[in-house]
Amino acid sequence: MSKKDDGNFTFTATSGDFPKKHKAPVINIGIAETGKFIMTASSDTTILIWSPKGEVLASINTNQVNNAHAAVSPCGRFVASCGFTPDVKVWEVCFGKNGEFREVARAFELKGHTAGIHCFSFSNDSR
Length: 127
Fold this sequence. Notes:
Blueprint: E1 2-3, E2 9-10, E3 26-31, E4 38-42, E5 46-50, E6 56-61, E7 67-72, E8 78-83, E9 87-95, E10 101-111
Antiparallel strand pairs: 1-2, 3-4, 4-5, 5-6, 7-8, 8-9, 9-10
């Protein structure tokens, strides 16, 4: 995926696959609207943040016994997951001013349930 001069994105097919990094089956895939990263989540406790070219930028251990669902926010700033534990965990994927990846930082947790959470969604404005 590359950005055109007018700000839109274009997709160009390339040969080859991303390397196999997950040990458990992948349950969700999300692409940031910004085009800066791809998120994959597996059924264990792993979320990987990838560059669009297939390089693993970060690995997140959700510490939820297992992941039931994961998603990228519509604004492309956050990734979140839910699973066996009674909360939704949210991380911020941080990039520098010139677009280089910096880190994945824990943002917050949504608490209040008394049992595991199977699914969630972001609102259209990422709140």
